[in-house]
Amino acid sequence: MNRSHQLDFFRGLFLILILVDHYLTWDNLVMKFTSEFIGWVSAAEAFVFLSGLTAGLVYTYKLADKGEAYIKKAATKRALDIYKYHTILFLLTLLILFSHKPIRLFWMSTFSDIVHEPMLATLKGFLLLYQPLYLDILPMYAVFLLFVPLAIRSFRNGNHLLLLSISFLLYLIGTFELVSPLMGPNFFQVRVNLGYFNLLSWQFLFVIGIFIGFLAYYKKVERLKQNIPLLTVALIITITLFLLKLLDVSFLNFNLGFWTEKGHLRPLRLLNFAAIFTIVTFVSFRFRSWFKYKPINYLGKHSLEVFSFHILLIILFKPFGAYLNSLWKIKLSETTYIYPYSTLLLLVLIPALYVAPIIMKKRSYGPIKLKRPVS
Question: Read out DSSP for 311-371?
Fold first, then answer.
């Protein structure tokens, strides 16, 4: 079995959506269709899950083909590569902020530590103790990757229930902030910023992705892809949550905002993603020729380079987009506008993603040619 073009397609698609959502302002009409349009689910959940699924497929193959020592080395190397991209992005962000005053003023609140204490902020950034907006995602992936060999080995040894239970317990601790009161911003005797995404919460989605990738390698998910009762339940959940969000329904003593909060991947958000994933899996299995558009596959194949480059594009062009918004806007409602100039700039930014693998070091998992697994 060769590389999954469908996986590349979806990763590429979500990279485009991430760029769009990070660039546009929340009141832009386009955002109504690109950011959580079908429920409390964003491209972030899909991308983290697909990264775990891809890692599960790749490292299960490598474990079967080259052994445990090899996957430990490979996962560590990949994590170090991601950390390297993080440090380069941090330094480039520092350079951009101090080389152009209007950009620095625009990002003043977001990167306040970098602006006011650049040396200390850089040191903390390299130690992963300071992870401001956009610079908090690659460190999360790097940390997750270090645990992939342990997860794959546990699944192979039949300890999947134990590992998944531990992962779920950590998820509950993270999503309900059971340890947050003990770990304030000065827990390490220095002010820290560990990022928007709670690692204890989001690791569960990544681990589930690894597990499904592991099962997919051994052809153990084929029946689930065709399970009509499961699809029916997923459709009911998706439609129900879509209507709740669309109609802004509220219940007495039930805070939907809390249960769908993104940073801690709260339970309703996780359920919403699981339901949509089930539907997409069913459709992609039934129509296997779909979701294989080569230009989008190209982005997914080079996801690390593309994602890293998109951060630079956001830092450089989001201030310009804000300026363009001030030149021409069409009011549709109190919370929705059409911004023609800044939206048209996407026609430049999205194609720009395709140069990322060229100007940055090309690296991908490479062709995955799997031997026939032994059950």
Answer: HHHHHHHHHHHHHHHHH--EESSSS-EE-HHHHHTHHHHHHHGGGHHHHS---------PP
| One-letter amino acid of 344 | L
Tokens 């990279």 -> residue: 15
Question: Tell me, what amino acid is at 276?
Answer: I
Nearest to 271 by CA among 366, 339, 175, 163: 175
Q: Output Rg (C-alpha) for the chain, integer angstroms.
A: 21
Q: Smallest Cα–Cα separation from 281: which of 123, 20, 43, 50?
A: 50
Helix (H, G, I), strand (E, B) or coil at 254: strand
Residues contacting 263, CB < 8 A, separation 6+:
196, 197, 198, 201
| pLDDT of amino acid 349 | 97
**Chain segment 87-136, per-residue pLDDT in tens:** 999 999 999 999 999 999 999 999 999 999 999 999 999 999 999 999 99
pLDDT at 161: 96
Sign of the dihedral through C-alpha 151, 152, 154, 160: positive
Distances (CA, A) of 161 to 13, 211, 295, 314: 32, 11, 39, 41
163 contacts 214 by C-beta, under 8 angstroms: no
Can you tell me the distance from the alpha carbon of 102 to that of 356, in angstroms, rounded to the nearest whole number? 25
* Averaged confidence pLDDT in the chain: 91
Residue-wise pLDDT for 301-330, tens only, equals 999 999 999 999 999 999 999 999 999 999
pTM equals 0.91
> Are 10 and 291 contacting, i.e. CB atoms less than 8 angstroms apart?
yes
